[in-house]
Amino acid sequence: MRVLVINCGSSSLKYQLITTEKENVITRGIIEKIGSAPEYTYYKKNGEKVKTAVKAGNHTEAVRAVMDNLVNPENSFIASLSEIDAIGHRVVHGGEEFYSSVRINSKVLESIEKYSELAPLHNPPNVQGIRSCMEVLPKIRQVAVFDTAFHQTMPESSYIYSLPYEYYEKYRIRRYGFHGTSHSYVAKKAAEFLGIEHDKINCIVCHLGNGSSITAVDQGKSVDTSMGFTPLEGLPMGTRSGSIDPAIVFTLMQRENLTAEQINGILNRSSGLIGISGVSNDLRDINEAASKGNKRAALAKEILVKAIRKYIGGYMIELGKVDAIIFTAGIGENETSVREKCTEGLEVYGIKLDREVNSRTRSKLECISTPDSKIKILVVPTNEELMIAMETESVLR
């Protein structure tokens, strides 16, 4: 099956055109900075990277640009859009309604839109991407693959908050967890790499990027995760605060005379790494600033590392037996110093990082612990798009 995977972020659109039988990527690309100064990067069949400006004032225009490029005779990706068998969409939030991937219809789309208030940075562009594809390719089947689905195996003790229980009963306020597609894919790849059956692996998956979350996987299933009711909880992220004392919200609203909408914007878009450093939400920029003596930039990185270590330690106790600690996504796969600092001092627990191997490992599947490490430390590149393509095929078959 030939599946076009669409992954719409708050200001980006990633895609891959995948042949599922051979797990072959025909082409892939990304449009970044949608709505400001859009940049389109894609790869030709010969592997040549092309970067160009593109008209993409919103996600609808970005989808159209991708479609035009796919059928461009100069690239020979496909002759016509009818050669696409299905479209798989990454959707961040499915609430309790969606326990697995589903074929999209008007009712499903309505539900996805309903959950936008729980994922304000992601579900709205997800919906835009779906609507745009429905408009441009109305006859092609579409599937929604939910980030929250993998975490539906969590026990009540992990997903119920210590609030009056009636709020869960009335409003389904609970921990949902996110990045589930990535966590699931990475856990399976790690199991294959270690020679463990998928439903036997115990691991801690650290998905670290502009959005970050950590998941405890027991016997191949999610039993706890750092993100919660929305993608705001947990680790400090690129622009998101992560977990803070809830009373801070009331204090800021009173002292700054802020509305609920304004405080929501601060916590989701102006906090985290960019809020602490004042430099950027990109750790590469923060590293550069810190190397030049910027103390706030150095502090932002230190706070991130400390938060990661707390979750790793907590999940080690929760799981008891741990086969591997896994790093994935942009920061996890490429930031060698973050991996080193996150595992520093764990030798007392028999966890030993091979610093030499770690220093040269970027974006490839690798064991970066020493041979005698009791718990393996792995770098496992995530491939949410491939997982979405396989889920799409599974649903439609």
Describe this structure in words.
The chain has 15 helices and 14 strands. It is of the alpha/beta class. The chain folds into 2 domains: 2-146, Nucleotidyltransferase, domain 5; 196-379, Nucleotidyltransferase, domain 5, CATH 3.30.420.40. The strands form 2 sheets. The protein has an 8-stranded mixed beta sheet with strand order 5-4-3-2-1-6-8-7, sandwiched between helices. The protein has a 6-stranded mixed beta sheet with strand order 11-10-9-12-14-13, with helices on both faces. Helix 1 packs across helix 3 and helix 10 (283-291) packs across helix 11.
Quick recap:
This protein is α/β, with parallel strands linked by helices and 397 residues long. The chain has helices spanning 59-70, 106-114, 123-136, 156-159, 166-171, 180-194, 247-255, 260-269, 272-277, 283-291, 295-319, 329-334, 336-342, 355-360, 384-396, and strands at 2-8, 12-19, 24-32, 39-43, 49-53, 86-91, 102-103, 141-146, 203-207, 213-218, 221-225, 324-328, 366-367, 376-379.
What key attributes describe this structure?
397 residues, alpha/beta, Nucleotidyltransferase, domain 5, 2 domains, 8-stranded mixed β-sheet, 6-stranded mixed β-sheet, 15 helices, 14 strands, 19% strand, globular
**What is the CATH topology assignment of the largest domain?**
Nucleotidyltransferase, domain 5
Low-confidence residue ranges: none
- Number of H/I helices: 15
Radius of gyration, whole Å? 21 Å
CATH superfamily of the largest domain: ATPase, nucleotide binding domain
CATH class of the largest domain, please?
Alpha Beta
Structural class: alpha/beta
Largest sheet geometry: 8 strands, mixed
State the shape.
globular
At CATH's second level, what is the architecture of the largest domain? 2-Layer Sandwich
Strand order of the main beta sheet, please? 5-4-3-2-1-6-8-7
Mean of the pLDDT scores? 94
